Amino acid sequence: MPNQFRHRYYCSFGANIDARCHAEQVLTQLLERFSTVIVSSAIETAPVAIDTPNRFLNWLFILDTPLPPFELKQLFNQIETGEGRNRNAVNSKYRDRPADLDIISIDLLPVGLESYLTPLWQQLTQGLVIDSAATLNLGESQLSQRAATIHLDASSGHIRVVEHHPQRLPDGF
Description:
By secondary structure, this protein is of the alpha+beta class. The chain contains three helices and nine strands. The protein has one domain (7-163): 7,8-Dihydro-6-hydroxymethylpterin-pyrophosphokinase HPPK (Alpha-Beta Plaits), CATH 3.30.70. It has helices at residues 19-34, 69-82, 118-126; strands at 7-15, 36-39, 43-45, 56-65, 100-106, 136-138, 141-143, 148-152, 159-163. The strands form two sheets. Strands 1, 2, 3, 4, 5, 8 and 9 form a seven-stranded antiparallel β-sheet that branches. Strands 6-7 form a two-stranded antiparallel sheet. The mean pLDDT is 87. Catalyzes the transfer of pyrophosphate from adenosine triphosphate (ATP) to 6-hydroxymethyl-7,8-dihydropterin, an enzymatic step in folate biosynthesis pathway. This is 2-amino-4-hydroxy-6-hydroxymethyldihydropteridine pyrophosphokinase.
């Protein structure tokens, strides 16, 4: 089998409509598609550039895939639509949403992150523990205060969560 070039994608998730439920569903879909995903904790944040009383749930994630950026963004849009986001609504960028997946950077460490994402990035790169993190359930596993690499065994359907205690981001999967 020939080697395929793989991109490392640094991405974000945000939602402010039934956020915890959609976060868990989106993460499950990402695992079903990519088998392994590195994730930060999920945190609640105030809305940015959107006028709403609804707080957001945000987390960062990293995945390696041979998909080109355009195809990955298309997949993200399909996941968002499947979760109930109406991407055709006027000013959909400024509306409450059940899911918002963005590619932050490709193959290079992100720079210039929104300030509300900084603690999540520090968690991924420096092992920061976030005491106020929201708990996400994945089958019988939970994500909470530490970054983790999540593996899905496609044959059994079992999810394995490996929390990161080292003070750096893992180099590979």
